[in-house]
Amino acid sequence: MVQTDTYYMQQALREAQKAFDAGEVPIGAVLVMQDRIIARAHNQVELLKDPTAHAEVLAITAACDQMGAKYLPDATLYVTLEPCLMCSGALFWSKIGRIVFGANDPGNGYAQKVKTSPFHPKTKLEGGLLAQECLALMQGFFKNRR
């Protein structure tokens, strides 16, 4: 069964909710190939005490391990927040085929840090899918922390 971008972003939102429930910044990601989720992840920075344990990086690592490959040109990453510069670098090196993100991140997103795309030249990028839902989860998290 072929799923839609919305379905996969909803799955990323489920991952983000797991992060929220664990006291992590609520960002979730799923990696899809051939209409199948091959990796799921959410932020685990606090749990792992690792500043690189972002949802995108954990999803890339899991997908590459499962596929037995270091490149993912046929994969799509669905992530609830615009990737940061660190995650953009990991996505560049994975040669990911497509990135679909939810909400923009005006404070830490890649677009605030660089003038040109930090992604592989063949990577397709789309933003704003379920942005309100993604943003509401982030805002709820930080509101509760204050």
Automatic annotation (TrEMBL):
HAMAP family, sorted: tRNA_aden_deaminase
Alphabetic keyword roster: Hydrolase, Metal-binding, tRNA processing, Zinc
UniProt remark on cofactor binding: Binds 1 zinc ion per subunit.
Source species: Arachidicoccus ginsenosidivorans
Cofactor names: Zn(2+)
Name of the molecule in the record: tRNA-specific adenosine deaminase
Biological processes per GO annotation: tRNA wobble adenosine to inosine editing
Gene name for this UniProt entry: tadA
Catalytic machinery residues: E56
Role summary: Catalyzes the deamination of adenosine to inosine at the wobble position 34 of tRNA(Arg2).
